[in-house]
Design goal:
The chain has one domain. Helix content is 54%, strand content 4%. The protein is elongated, with a radius of gyration of 16 Å. The N terminus is likely disordered.
Length: 98
């Protein structure tokens, strides 16, 4: 399926829920990785593993679910709030968030 077909099927919009999930998982992963360094906790290995898994899940959402509906580029920046001024870095078309 080409990017243009995906845009027609998807009405040219991306789900904001996936963007918010990616942002929350990234923040959670960073906090999990920084807690052992700040507080010198003894259970650092579990927190670092949990943080790494959260960041990997956020990256998977970013590159698999947040694709340009027109060209299929998977490197779009997740946005929390509605902003209709974001364009795809690859094809230059306006990205609409639901």
């Amino acid at each position: 399926m080409k990017g243009g077909d995906l845009a027609i099927m998807n009405n040219g919009s991306l789900k904001r829920g996936f963007a918010r999930a990616s942002i929350v998982l990234s923040c959670f992963g960073l906090v999990c990785m920084w807690i052992p360094l700040i507080f010198a906790r003894s259970d650092w290995a579990l927190l670092i593993i949990l943080g790494t898994i959260a960041i990997l899940c956020a990256l998977m959402i970013k590159y698999l679910k947040l694709r340009c509906p027109f060209c299929g580029f998977g490197g779009l920046m997740p946005q929390w709030s509605k902003n209709d001024t974001y364009h795809c870095p690859k094809c230059g078309k306006l990205i609409h968030w639901e």
